[in-house]
Amino acid sequence: MKRKTKDSAAVIFDTHQLVKDLEAKGFNAEQAEGINDALKGALTIAEVATKRDLKELEVILKHDLREMELRMTIRLGTLIFASLGLMAAVQKVFFS
Prior knowledge:
This protein has three helices and two strands; from the N terminus they run ββααα. By secondary structure, the protein is mainly alpha-helical. It folds into two domains: 1-48, no CATH class; 50-96. The longest helix is centred in the last third of the chain and has 45 residues, at 51-95.
């Protein structure tokens, strides 16, 4: 069985060999075919992430984290600057 979707890699699976292997392990033909059909159905529904998919996600997440860190640094700097300005104003008004 070969499955390929827009966002996933191909999953190559030899269903005939599976049936032969199951029969060699003692399953009768009907049981082996049933297991084969269930497995094909599960793989058709399943979303399989490849190492490449995970690496691409890691790159995206690292980029997003760096961007968020930059925004947080800017906000913290703005807060510190505003606090210093407020402290200076309070000092000037009440202690001058």
